[in-house]
């Protein structure tokens, strides 16, 4: 007997259909006959929201009235993905929806597809935030996600005739957004600029301008917890609608200028995802949402109190800083406590340090945010004073802890130079109670390298929380076939809220009948993806070939170049007759990647992949053997279709560069095998699924270090491996640029002269592992056994487990009472 615990609302499909009819009539003013799929999508979404409303209100009340500390997840990015299916799942309305829309004469998938994906994040960090708020709600922990409701999300990617990336604005709010509820009454004032003056012995900030932060609330329904939390995204609005004095015809543009300026703050998500961008507007965004959120939390937890006792603030809510982006919240809370509520410095400091914790998501020093003190002084003069005072206090503390003057200098929060800089990661590390990395290796490297001086002196602050992903979206919704098979295999669907139960699948890897069913699910997912790729992109993919996928932001350290060079080398092997195409496992290489618009090398790599695709896909000599598919505008929707269809997952970053990775977890949970380096969470995935079920290759962190130290010369590797040489020569000689040798010259020169991420040094090892992959793939039963073992042993990578670790190690709180 299969035990089913998934939430199920008691409402009938008929009644649900009637609710949709009502909403179509009273909200949209259309009959079901007149309605479009988009209308039905809006009405159905509103109907689901209504069903969640009681739980949402009760959760808010219990949170404020109870004594369970809440979590505030401060993040500049929340990459939520589409909402309707997820909300239906958690509200227990999936079946009713499917039936109801049919009754109304609509195709369910068309209704689902009417939702435009909100892309309010760049990649891993933003998606992690989305998984975390899902898990918080599912565990019944009272929490707010706090961020920005960007008007334009991550750009829509297109490819032009030459295969170059073109960025188009992502105006996701062009149509009605039934999920976001604008709450004008709870807006906050956020001040900027001006100066600080001395009044009655006090420092008083006289700001020059202000914007109104208006909250847009999204429900975050938990799975099977009965709880619904809130994602509160702030929208910037001007206080001065137009200045009518200025408003005559010729001054019209001038009249709306202040409004335009204020509203620019929440206009666009910065598409940079790793190297820092020192843009004034970005600092404005960071201050805008952290200031509004902190004030909001005071409003929520001390309702109606003019003189709240904020010494208890850290008992009401703990704030997690998702990377350095919200770190300006630290001096802001100091300012609120001192300037707005009259606390003394030491009291404010005690409250502030208890309130914040910091998660670091990088190892690349160039990604650690640093702001010119002059810029902070211009936008936030009072905050600069506070930061300087924190710095002084810190230096005094350090002087008591160490005699090492160099170390003290290295650790300064505000650098000692003419054009002084403020190091946000250092500020967060000093002021926060805890600092964590996002995978074991990453947390270790943070201590050993990136934040070494800090860990020397404040070791107790440092901890690790390995990332995780939500099984609701990335298994149940993305892979219904596998989910059903797992439920059948385990005899229960409880694994969706207790993912370690997947362990129970282990014996089934030896059951040939089960393995065949598993293989069938994978094959069906491939067919489904091929169909989608045909409809959406016009690709002809062959589901009988191996689906070999690399999806992630385009970065040199992630080494998409390694993958494409290996594909080119294989192509060259076949063309030159060195290898008989019939001896190779036919593969479809699938890429998905956006590049930061200003990242030249990354964009050139995209162009190269597209043009290698053009050549290879049109060459009859390799037809049926090698194919490249590079769907443009990779996003959560594509991920949900592609991950379940993938057999081989590429996680091939240079060791010591990828903080964690999270798609690696999604792939393992969906039964792909990984080819990867010992980097980020790959290390932990391999340890859990077993070395024999993971294709490991490449240098370790120590080997990388040693090679840098010895003086790295990539050209040696080029000379030593004829396949590598052939591949690079092909790129250099214009094979993929209509004979033009100039096009990829910067890439070629970089590979041969610099190759900072040692693509060439790992090339031979990467190739050597391919024959092992082919051999295993030839034995489908064995391959699928290993894939099942990956699923069975990846339960640890649920974001529920990550959240439990945060609760225990950092937040010191838990679920609300039932
Ligand atoms: C400063 C600004 C330009 C900036 C904006 C976005 C800097 C960084 C980012 C985003 C970083 C990011 O997505 N990092 C990824 O975080 C994932 C979740 O922890 C990790 O799995 C992944 O390894 C890391 O690259």
Automatic annotation (TrEMBL):
It comes from Bifidobacterium gallicum DSM 20093 = LMG 11596. One of its GO terms (biological process) is glycogen catabolic process. Pfam families: Phosphorylase. The modification N6-(pyridoxal phosphate)lysine is found at residue 666. One of its GO terms (molecular function) is glycogen phosphorylase activity. It catalyses: [(1->4)-alpha-D-glucosyl](n) + phosphate = [(1->4)-alpha-D-glucosyl](n-1) + alpha-D-glucose 1-phosphate. CDD domains: GT35_Glycogen_Phosphorylase. Its cofactor is pyridoxal 5'-phosphate. PROSITE patterns: PHOSPHORYLASE. InterPro entries: Glycg_phsphrylas, Glyco_trans_35, Pyridoxal_P_attach_site. Belongs to the glycogen phosphorylase family. Its EC number is 2.4.1.1. It comes from the Bacteria. GO terms for cellular component: cytoplasm. Allosteric enzyme that catalyzes the rate-limiting step in glycogen catabolism, the phosphorolytic cleavage of glycogen to produce glucose-1-phosphate, and plays a central role in maintaining cellular and organismal glucose homeostasis. Phosphorylase is an important allosteric enzyme in carbohydrate metabolism. Enzymes from different sources differ in their regulatory mechanisms and in their natural substrates. However, all known phosphorylases share catalytic and structural properties. PANTHER family: GLYCOGEN PHOSPHORYLASE, GLYCOGEN PHOSPHORYLASE, LIVER FORM. Keywords: Carbohydrate metabolism, Coiled coil, Glycosyltransferase, Pyridoxal phosphate, Transferase. NCBIfam families: P_ylase. Residues 384-411 form a coiled coil. The gene is glgP. This is Alpha-1,4 glucan phosphorylase.
């Amino acid at each position: 007997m299969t035990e089913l615990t998934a939430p199920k609302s008691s409402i009938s499909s008929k009644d649900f259909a009637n609710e949709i009819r009502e909403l179509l009539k009273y909200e949209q003013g259309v009959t079901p006959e007149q309605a479009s799929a988009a209308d039905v999508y809006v009405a159905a979404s509103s109907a689901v929201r209504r069903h969640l409303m009681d739980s949402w209100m009760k959760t808010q009340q219990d949170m404020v009235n109870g004594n369970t500390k809440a979590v505030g997840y401060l993040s500049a990015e929340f990459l939520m993905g589409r909402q309707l299916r997820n909300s239906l799942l958690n509200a227990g309305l999936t079946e009713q929806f499917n039936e109801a829309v049919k009754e109304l004469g609509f195709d369910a998938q068309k209704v689902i597809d009417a939702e435009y994906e909100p892309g309010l994040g760049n990649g891993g960090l933003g998606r992690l935030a989305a998984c975390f708020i899902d898990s918080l709600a599912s565990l019944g922990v009272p929490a707010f996600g706090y961020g920005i409701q960007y008007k334009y999300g991550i750009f829509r990617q297109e490819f032009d005739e030459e295969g170059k990336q073109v960025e188009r604005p992502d105006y996701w709010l062009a149509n009605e957004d039934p999920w976001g509820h604008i709450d004008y009454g709870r807006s906050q004032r956020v001040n900027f600029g001006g100066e600080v003056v001395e009044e009655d012995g006090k420092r008083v900030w006289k700001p020059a301008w202000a914007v109104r932060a208006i909250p847009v609330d999204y429900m975050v329904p938990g799975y099977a917890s009965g709880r619904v939390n809130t994602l509160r995204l702030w929208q910037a609005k001007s206080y001065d609608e137009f200045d009518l004095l200025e408003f005559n015809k010729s001054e019209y543009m001038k009249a709306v200028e202040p409004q335009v300026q204020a509203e620019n703050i929440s206009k666009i998500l910065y598409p940079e995802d790793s190297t820092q961008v020192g843009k004034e507007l970005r600092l404005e965004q960071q201050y805008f949402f952290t200031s509004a959120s902190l004030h909001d939390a005071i409003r929520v937890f001390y309702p109606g109190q003019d003189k709240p006792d904020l010494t208890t603030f850290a008992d009401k809510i703990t704030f997690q800083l998702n990377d350095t982006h919200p770190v300006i919240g630290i001096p802001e809370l100091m300012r609120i406590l001192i300037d707005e509520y009259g606390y003394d410095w030491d009291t404010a400091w005690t409250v502030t340090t208890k309130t914040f914790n910091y998660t670091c998501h990088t190892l690349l020093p160039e990604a650690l945010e640093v702001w010119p003190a002059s810029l902070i002084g211009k936008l936030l003069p009072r905050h600069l004073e506070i930061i300087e005072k924190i710095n002084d206090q810190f230096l005094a503390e350090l002087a008591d802890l160490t005699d090492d003057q160099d170390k003290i200098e290295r650790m300064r929060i505000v650098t000692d130079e003419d054009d002084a800089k403020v190091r946000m990661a250092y500020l967060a590390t000093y002021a926060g109670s805890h600092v964590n990395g996002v995978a074991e290796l990453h947390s270790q490297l943070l201590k050993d390298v990136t934040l070494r001086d800090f860990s020397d002196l404040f070791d107790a602050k440092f901890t690790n929380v390995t990332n995780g992903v939500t099984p609701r979206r990335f298994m149940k919704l993305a892979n219904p076939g596998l989910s059903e098979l797992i439920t059948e295999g385990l005899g229960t669907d409880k694994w969706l809220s207790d993912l370690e139960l997947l362990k129970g699948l282990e014996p089934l890897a030896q059951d040939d009948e089960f393995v065949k069913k598993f293989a069938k699910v994978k094959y069906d997912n491939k067919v489904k993806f091929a169909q989608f790729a045909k409809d959406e992109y016009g690709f002809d993919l062959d589901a009988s070939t191996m689906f070999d996928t690399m999806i992630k932001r385009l970065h040199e350290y992630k080494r998409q170049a390694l993958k494409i060079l290996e594909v080119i080398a294989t192509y060259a092997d076949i063309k030159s007759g060195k290898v008989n195409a019939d001896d190779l496992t036919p593969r479809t290489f699938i890429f998905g990647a956006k590049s930061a618009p200003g990242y030249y090398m990354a964009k050139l790599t995209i162009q190269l992949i597209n043009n290698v695709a053009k050549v290879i896909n049109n060459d009859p000599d390799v037809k049926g053997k090698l194919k490249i598919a590079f769907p443009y505008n990779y996003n959560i929707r594509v991920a949900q279709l592609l991950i379940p269809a993938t057999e081989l997952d590429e996680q091939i970053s240079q060791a010591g560069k990828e903080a964690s990775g999270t798609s690696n977890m999604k792939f393992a949970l969906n039964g792909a095998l990984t080819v990867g380096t010992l980097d980020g969470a790959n290390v932990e995935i391999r340890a859990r699924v077993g070395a024999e079920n993971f294709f490991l290759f490449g240098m370790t962190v120590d080997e990388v270090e040693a090679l840098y130290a010895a003086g790295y010369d990539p050209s040696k590797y080029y000379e030593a491996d004829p396949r590598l040489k052939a591949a690079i020569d092909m790129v250099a000689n214009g094979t993929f640029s209509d004979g033009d040798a100039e096009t990829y010259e910067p890439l070629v020169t970089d590979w041969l002269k610099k190759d900072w991420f040692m693509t060439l040094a790992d090339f031979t090892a990467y190739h050597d592992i391919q024959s092992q992959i082919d051999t295993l793939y030839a034995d489908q039963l064995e391959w699928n056994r290993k894939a099942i073992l990956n699923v069975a042993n990846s339960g640890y990578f649920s974001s529920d487990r990550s959240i439990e670790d945060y609760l225990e190690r950092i937040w010191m709180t838990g679920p609300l009472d039932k």
